Amino acid sequence: MNSCAFVNFISLLACEIAKDKSQDELAILSAFFTQLGDTLATLATLNPD
Q1: I need a labelling partner for 11 at 20 to 30 A (CA). Which of 5, 19, 30, 46 fits?
Q2: pLDDT averaged over consecutive 10-residue blocks of the chain (49 residues)?
Q3: Residue 49 and residue 16: Cα distance in Å, rounded?
Q4: Which residues are CB-contacts of 9 (< 8 A; sequence separation ≥ 6)?
Q5: Interior CA angle at 21 toward 18 and 24, to 5°?
Q6: What is the 3-state secondary structure (H, E, C) of 1-49?
Q7: What is the pTM of this model?
């Protein structure tokens, strides 16, 4: 998958997840996925195998 297709996929996925969610639910989901991404990046840095 090329980079533009990946960006489009992520945007489409975000729109689907956001459907029928309140602002509070979106804020919680955003914090969850931000923390998940940051933790995965940390693990990748610490375990470069």
Answers
A1: 46
A2: 94 97 98 97 90
A3: 34
A4: 1
A5: 110
A6: CCHHHHHHHHHHHHHHHHCCCCHHHHHHHHHHHHHHHHHHHHHHHHCCC
A7: 0.78
Which amino acid, one-letter code, is at 22?
A: S
Predicted local distance difference test score (pLDDT) of residue 43? 95
- State residue 1's pLDDT score: 79
Q: Measured between alpha carbons, how far is 5 from 20 in angstroms, rounded to an integer?
A: 25
Please give the structure tokens belonging to residue 4.
Answer: 């533009």
Task: Parse the chain into domains and list their residue ranges.
Answer: 21-49
